[in-house]
Amino acid sequence: MSQVSQPSQETFLALKLDSSEILPLFEQASNWQERYRQIMLLGKALPKLDEAFRVESAQVRGCESSAWLYHSVIEDKHYFVADSDARIVKGLIGLLLTACQGKTSAEIARFDIEGYFDMLGLTGQLSPSRTNGLFALAKAIKAFSV
Amino acid sequence: MDFHHLRAQFPTLEQTLAGYPLCYLDTAATSQKPKQVLNAMARYYENDNANVHRAAHQLSSRATSNYETVRDKVCHFIKAKQREEIIFTHGTTESINLVAYGLTGQIKSGDLILIDTAAHHANIVPWQELAKRTGAIIKPIPLDSECRLDETAYEHLLQENPFIVALSHVSNALGTLNPVNRLVALAKQVGAITLVDGAQAIAHLDVDVQAIGCDFYVFSGHKMYGPTGVGVLYGRFDILDSLMPLMTGGEMIKTVSFEATEFNQLPNRLEPGTPPIAEVIGLGAAIDFLSALPREVIAKQEAELLSYLQTQLKQLGDITLYGANTSNIGAVAFNLADEHHQDVGILLDQQGIAVRCGHHCAMPLMQSLGLKGCCRASLGVYTSKEDIDRFIEAMASVKEMLL
């Protein structure tokens, strides 16, 4: 994924996702409707990727919806900016970024993404058989963070 | 006909997903399989497992006989003239590739290939590859405002004397039915070779290849209650016999020496290697299954359900239907307001509802409709009114969540 131009460093740093705020909302969700409402709210809270950056070279393959991912290393930590044209996918991306934003390579390598989604009550969403492309995104995040 | 008894033949349908009973509305992607198909395949592996056409022993003799009996069944099922016109392939895609490759030496640079705009990729890409190899030209046949093939535009295009006309019998994405008898007759008047993709038609309609008058008719087993990995290429004998084989090797030869090879006669000439034997036998069982059904009763039931589905979706509001005509077969394509089809699909899946969401392997069609994709609900013989009601109820909750 060669990227000619990137969002600015401020954009990468502006994306603040606090897992201590987000995760309890999922733990408290009593049914799938509630979980998916939270996912969509999270998606809404993620900034929209500027149209100029919605380009093919940033697109993550394997998504039925379109998803774009940008990566930057700032002071040895990994930062991501991502977006999708589908709302739930965007929220799921938000969950992925919550776990990976501002982490070191070692932290991301150690991180069990599948276990994380299971914990959130979203078992099976992160699988190569799903067309939501989350698996491809997780792979891309891991690949960026080596 | 006892519907409950019929539905009980499909073991996959008796399951729950995350607490919801499965509501399978994705038959157009692949149908579920009745027990008699599963049993026939298991029986082959348990009792007769041997390679075919090498009958030095009794097992092989039995396997060959069972395999070749299915050729007769297919021949009868689609009313071909003779069994040699039936070629077993691994599916619709391979069938079209066999034809498109096989015509390589017959088509010239500048010759025209007409393709139905609603065609799925399997009925586009092999022709594009043929055009690349030979310098032939591809033109899509436009659709009218109701997503039906535009017959006036078609007739104009026919005046350019196309070499090949590739049509869909029923559109994969939209379920629209093409009047293939008429379209093929028009193409024959200008001497075009005609191929009809019957992948979405074969499970719903009585297909008579002679009445259609096409040179080729193709379909897959798995969309007609049979197994995956098997399909049929029907070809009128003389033109089928003129095809250059796409694959060469064992089984399709008469004699081989290091100097030269002489190919076998039809149908073996186009069936190289060990064929999908169990799957062909499963296909035979699927034909038995379909043939034993009162097809007219089933067709009426499917048409009523489809019309009910269209009406219910419209009543739900904020729904756009695509190419929804009264003559549609088996499928309805739609979107919910401006919502992404995948969001709708994910939320339906949470409720045990299986529908297809995407471009349905018909990207040019989606482009012509100005869509990234859409959702498609499709029916089979086992679909009940309760399935539709559950789907509509689930759509109402999706609408409530998204809008």
Shape of chain B: globular
Strand percentage of chain B lies at: 15-25%
Write down the overall mean pLDDT of chain A: 87
The CATH superfamily of the largest domain in chain B is known as Type I PLP-dependent aspartate aminotransferase-like (Major domain)
Q: What structural class do the secondary elements of chain A suggest?
A: mainly alpha
The beta-strand count of chain A equals 2
Termini Cα gap of chain A: 14 Å
Binned, the helix content of chain B reads 25-40%
Number of helices of chain B: 14
Instruction: Round the mean pLDDT of chain B to the nearest integer and report it.
Output: 95
Going by CATH, the architecture of the largest domain in chain B would be 3-Layer(aba) Sandwich
Give the radius of gyration of chain A.
Answer: 14 Å
How many distinct domains of chain A? 1
Q: What distance lies between the first and last C-alpha atoms of chain B, to the nearest angstrom?
A: 42 Å
Main interface pair? Answer: A-B, 15 and 16 residues
Q: What order do the SSEs of chain A take from the amino end to the carboxyl end, as H and E?
A: HHHEEHHHH
Descriptors for this entry?
heterodimer, A: 146 residues, mainly alpha, Sufe protein. Chain: A, two-stranded antiparallel ribbon, 2 strands, 11% strand, globular, B: 403 residues, alpha/beta, Aspartate Aminotransferase, domain 1, Aspartate Aminotransferase, domain 2, 2 domains, seven-stranded mixed β-sheet, four-stranded antiparallel β-sheet, 14 helices, 17 strands, Fe-S metabolism associated SufE (chain A), Fe-S_metab-assoc_dom (chain A), pyridoxal phosphate (chain B), EC 2.8.1.7 (chain B)
